[in-house]
UniProtKB/TrEMBL annotation:
<feature type="domain" description="Glycosyl hydrolase family 13 catalytic">
    <location>
        <begin position="13"/>
        <end position="383"/>
    </location>
</feature>
<dbReference type="InterPro" id="IPR006047">
    <property type="entry name" value="GH13_cat_dom"/>
</dbReference>
<keyword id="KW-0326">Glycosidase</keyword>
<dbReference type="InterPro" id="IPR017853">
    <property type="entry name" value="GH"/>
</dbReference>
<dbReference type="GO" id="GO:0016798">
    <property type="term" value="F:hydrolase activity, acting on glycosyl bonds"/>
</dbReference>
<protein>
    <submittedName>
        <fullName>Glycoside hydrolase family 13 protein</fullName>
        <ecNumber>3.2.1.-</ecNumber>
    </submittedName>
</protein>
<keyword id="KW-0378">Hydrolase</keyword>
<comment type="similarity">
    <text>Belongs to the glycosyl hydrolase 13 family.</text>
</comment>
<dbReference type="Pfam" id="PF00128">
    <property type="entry name" value="Alpha-amylase"/>
</dbReference>
<dbReference type="InterPro" id="IPR045857">
    <property type="entry name" value="O16G_dom_2"/>
</dbReference>
Length: 502
């Protein structure tokens, strides 16, 4: 792979707890992941990004980290993680892990020390009374009280106390954590809540000081050669967003504008152009993301009347036409894979899994559900354990009862059922990612004028991608159709379909 593999990479997101269970306790783990590495190799990805794998009470699915230098026992051991990194590398798959610098866990050594010793509280935000009226992003106040009467800040759940980045010890700690994992071979970090680290009297989003942190982290990453930093930066202002991607800061950041876009030609074109205009001047490759562990699965989202992604669960349970959503999700996948830059695939996206919207409330685990008083169903519906094989739950996920229940109807969606079906979502992803490796990835695009309802462009390799978002079929340009998300007959591209031509 080239020195800059990440510029055009296909990165597969593994939500470890729901990927595959190797020891029968109902939760995914490293043993399960290691046993499925050939599946990922055959899918045609370049890298895996794992959600947090650190020891954690799981108050927020592992984003409440108790120890940044070890592995959650439910997932395995540090030795196993090291073996996994070696095995992935043997298959030429890079490994990216999550780092969570905004907050830790109330079970972390530092927070426990702070509770015992008020003189050791400066690594967090402690005060005699709440310093402001900030609300937690998961609902309720962002301040909670400890037994001796002081209050501490948590932008997320009360189990996730925020670090005080004005304290040099916090800087030192995270640089050391980066080194700890770089030395064990990880190829990069996905940086959680990357824009939120600093707090001031006026707020906490995107304060200028945060860039000094990433400049320093970039120096650390560069010491180890080809290692990368990927930001979770949800900022509507593209100029502010682009500042994180300056040549001495992060390498890439998730494209949440594209992820939140409606299935609408004007909105998608606007988002693609905005993305290219933002990234091109700074030389950073765009990323194309359709889903992750925080958002509604595309098959469900695209089947609704309102096809945008909205935070807060506002559209949860609104009617969704499964066939329409499935067709559009296929078309969207080929569109995303054809755009210049890197592409993300969230586990289960390649199986066309829908969002599970009818989970019984008593099994919901996402803190968003409880913290919102039940008004926001939370994100469990996109985190259901994967169906691998067989006719009934647990569908080869493991031998135990999965930590969240799988729908019976997923028998049609198992990896096994789709593997040999050339018309399946899995086959589409495999073929698409394979062609993408040869013909797409990093570079530029040239738009082709095909009317307002059609997105069409040619890539540097000569491959043309055409997506029809209108109601009627449209004639395809000249060329051989090498892949299509739906039936192409007599040179006509049906509604909600993407075709690739050479
Ligand atoms: C973003 C992560 O993707 C999400 O799952 C988590 O709840 C928050 N950051 C807090 O860490």
């Amino acid at each position: 792979m080239s020195q800059t593999w990440w510029r055009g990479a296909a990165i597969y997101q593994v939500y470890l707890r729901s990927f595959a269970d190797g020891n029968g306790d109902g939760a995914g783990d490293l043993a399960g992941l290691r046993s499925r590495l050939t599946y990922l190799k055959e899918l045609g990805i370049d890298a895996i990004w794992l959600n947090p794998w650190y020891p954690s009470p799981m108050a927020d699915g592992g984003y409440d980290v108790a120890d940044y230098r070890d592995i959650e026992p439910v997932f395995g051991t540090l030795a196993e993680a090291e073996r996994f990194i070696v095995e992935a590398h043997e298959l030429d798959i890079k490994v990216i892990i999550d780092v969570v610098p905004n907050h830790s866990s109330t079970q972390s050594a530092w927070f426990k020390e702070a509770l015992e010793n008020p003189a050791a509280r400066d690594r967090f935000w402690f005060a005699d009374e709440p310093l402001n009226d900030w609300q937690s992003i998961f609902g309720g106040s962002a301040w909670s009280q400890v037994p001796d009467g002081q209050w501490y800040l948590h932008l997320f759940a009360p189990e996730q106390p925020d670090f005080n980045w004005a304290n040099p010890e916090v800087h030192q700690e995270f640089e050391d954590v980066l080194r700890f994992w770089f030395e064990r071979g990880v190829d990069g970090f996905r940086i959680d809540s990357a824009a939120l680290l600093y707090k001031s009297g006026t707020g906490y989003e995107d304060l200028d000081e945060v860039h000094d942190v990433y400049r320093r982290w970039r120096e650390v990453a560069d010491e180890y050669g080809e290692r990368i930093l990927i930001g979770e930066v949800w900022l509507p202002d593209q100029e502010r967003f682009a500042r994180y991607l300056r040549p001495d800061e992060m390498h890439t950041a998730f494209n949440f504008d594209f992820l939140s876009c409606a299935w609408d030609p004007a909105d998608l074109r606007r988002s693609i152009e905005l993305t290219l205009d933002t990234h091109t001047p700074i030389g950073a490759p765009p990323t194309w993301v359709l889903s992750n562990h925080d958002v509604t699965r595309p098959v469900t989202r695209y089947g609704r009347i309102d096809t945008t992604f909205a935070h807060g669960g506002a559209l949860h349970g609104t009617p969704s036409d499964p066939e329409l959503g499935y067709r559009r999700a296929r078309a969207a996948a080929l569109l995303a894979m054809a755009l210049p830059g890197s592409v993300y695939v969230y586990q289960g996206e390649e199986l066309g899994l829908p969002e599970v919207e009818d989970l019984p409330n008593e099994v919901r685990q996402d803190p968003m559900y409880a913290r919102s008083g039940g008004t926001n169903p939370g994100r469990d519906g996109c985190r259901i354990p994967l169906p691998w094989s067989g006719e009934e739950p647990p569908f080869g996920f493991g031998t135990g009862t999965p930590w969240l229940p799988q729908p019976e109807s997923w028998r049609k969606l198992t990896a096994e059922a789709q593997r040999t079906d050339l018309g399946s979502m899995l086959s589409l992803y495999r073929t698409g990612l394979g062609l993408r490796r040869k013909l797409l990835g990093d570079g530029t695009l040239t738009w082709l004028p095909m009317g307002e309802q059609v997105l069409a462009f040619t890539r540097d390799s000569g491959l043309t991608c055409v997506t029809n978002l209108g109601a009627d079929p449209v004639p395809l340009p000249a060329g051989e159709v090498v892949l299509a998300s739906g039936p192409v007959e007599d040179g006509l591209l049906p509604s909600d379909t993407t075709a690739w031509l050479t």
